Amino acid sequence: MSGRRSPYNDDLRLITATTILILTAQRYFQQISARVSPARLTNSASARPGNAAPN
Fold first, then answer.
1. Residue 54: closest CA among 46, 17, 21
2. pTM of the model
3. What string of DSSP letters covers 1-55?
4. Cα–Cα dist 43/12, whole Å
5. 50: left (phi > 0), else alpha (psi -120 to 50), else beta?
6. Model confidence over 3-44: pLDDT tens digits?
């Protein structure tokens, strides 16, 4: 077995690592936004009764 890697294997590893990174980041940010959104919504001016958006 030679010490050289094929470019094809390097490409597959890069694609796999990038996919895992993106999926992990999406999951992380979805969890963060799920925790933050209700607090922002209840404290915002638009969520208070009687405040309607201007047309």
1. 46
2. 0.53
3. --SPPPHHHHHHHHHHHHHHHHHHHHHHHHHHHHHHHHHHHHHSGGGSTT-----
4. 47
5. left
6. 677 888 999 999 999 999 999 999 999 988 888 755 555 555
